[in-house]
Structure prediction request, 229 residues.
Amino acid sequence: MKLSRTLALGATAAALAFAGQAQAITLGAYEFDDTEFGDTLLESDGGAFSATNWLNTGNADPGNPGYLTGASFETGIANIGLGGRPTYTIGYTGGVDNDAGFDLGIVTARYSTSDSITLELSLDGINFFAPINLGPGQAVATGVSKSYFYGGGGPFGAELFVTSLDLSDYGFGAGDTLKAVRITGAPELDLIRAAGFGAAVPEPATWALMIMGFGLAGAGLRRRRTAIA
Prediction:
């Protein structure tokens, strides 16, 4: 009975140790961190364009900030370079960390081959670096397709592409954190997400070893305390 309680406490401790940690959101060969998706959205036109150009795998307007935020690839905004080229400022409460290699992935739904992106990056969510132009040739196919309703019509199928950025190439120092991006693009650019790449989720075997480790440590502590008493 004591051992069972100890193992149960060990399992709880292991779960708490990982509570709130990043989970992997995969898109083809790409792995995103579910804590590094945007959670706020500012639309320069007050939402006039997105109200009739939203994308969703379900036939319902996802609204603001759901168009471009949250850890999924089910929603977006179509043709963001039309309608006076509104800009979309996506904020990250936790930020996107500048680590080694690529840090940020811009996910687009590829209906055309002219999906160029204009992007501005911010360390504080207020001040932005000079605009970056990312050509359509930088987008890489994921092999994943989605069917989106467009402004209530559809659904229409499209393959998802990712344009990857290393923040170190754009003025960020080691350990800096991206707090916001401002995006517009070519007339036919269909924007799905801008999110941070992430680390792997612990394997089931690792979970088992950690739980057993917590249990054995707890049992050993109980034995030592009994001996001292």
Q: What stands out?
A: Helices lie at 2-18, 50-53, 204-228.
